[in-house]
Amino acid sequence: MRMWHQRSGKATNPQTTPPLVLIHGMGSASTAWRLIAPALSEHLDVIAIDLPGHGNTPLPKDQAMDPYSLALLLKQELDELGITRIHVAGNSLGGWIALELAAAFPELVLSVVGLAPAGLWLVPATHRQKRGALARYLATLTYPIAPYLMQYQWARRIGFAVVSPLWRDLPLETCIDATVAYGTSAGYYPAWDGMLGRRFDKAIPESLPVAVVFGDHDNTLPAKHSQERSLVPAHTNWVRVAQSGHAPMWDHPDQIVTILLQTVNAA
User: C-alpha angle 110/218/182, rounded to 5°?
Assistant: First the structure.
């Protein structure tokens, strides 16, 4: 299958100017990168993809949705595009996929950044959490009227107070995009089930620049059990972002752009 993607920026020869591939999280879409894509596109060829069952990419019945299988699918898509070298960054599930891609294809990946990446836990979960299921259910009911609802602070509180300590300041477009992506993601539960019983435990070469970024208010993947540093390479640049939640690129877009460009330049 083909994965929908949006490409912007310096669309030069991918052999001499490798693109930066952005991978969203579970229940999200490529629209999650709108706050930072324009600034990144001033420096790089940027490709934001939609995972199966998310955004504009359909969900085939036989598509495996565990992070490793999704990394293999992304590699196939890059092959179709004729791209042989990339920088890669991902948020949440997308961060886990980015790490899997770097471990499985070190000849492909030049640098990797995980923004609140999933998979960095010693004891994997074995079942879905009720809070996540309830949030998904509410999104399926409300996404058609998201442009109306997200104008009200009470609606933003319900949808984003757990995700971001700065939820009051999130742009209206970000809130609408996230609600629509969440409410329409047919791949949400398959992706969730694909993470159960698993963690990231592969080796990434020491020569490959790695950065892991977590917000100090990440309620989705808290430090107590979901930010295990021993699961990433010892040379990883581990960054803690103040006043940030599970989507650091929403809370502090300028800082995240700087981290991404620094990691790319380190390669």
Answer: 80
Mean pLDDT value of segment 170-195: 97
Pull the structure tokens for residue 161: 């107070």
| Nearest of 145, 154, 122, 144 to residue 226 by alpha carbon | 122
| Whole-number pLDDT of residue 102 | 98
Write the pLDDT tens digit of every residue in 82-140.
999 999 999 999 999 999 999 999 999 999 999 999 999 999 999 998 888 888 999 99
Q: Please tell me the predicted confidence (pLDDT) of residue 229.
A: 96
Q: What is the pLDDT of residues 5-34, one digit of tens each?
A: 999 986 555 555 799 999 999 999 999 999
The secondary structure of residue 31, as a DSSP letter, is G
Q: Which residues contact 230 (CB under 8 A, 6 or more apart)?
A: none
Question: What's the pLDDT at 15?
Answer: 52
Number of domains composing the chain: 1
Please measure the distance between the N-terminal and C-terminal CA atoms of the chain and give it in whole angstroms.
31
200 Cβ neighbours under 8 A, 6+ residues apart: 67, 96, 99, 100, 117, 119, 120, 231, 232
**Tokens, residue 182:** 């969440």
CATH number, domain of 238, equals: 3.40.50.1820
User: What is the Cα–Cα distance from 219 to 222, expressed in whole angstroms?
Assistant: 5
Nearest alpha-carbon partner for 114 in 206, 232, 252, 194:
232
SS3 56: coil
Nearest-angstrom CA–CA distance, 101 and 206: 15
Spacing of C-alpha 144 from chain mean position? 24
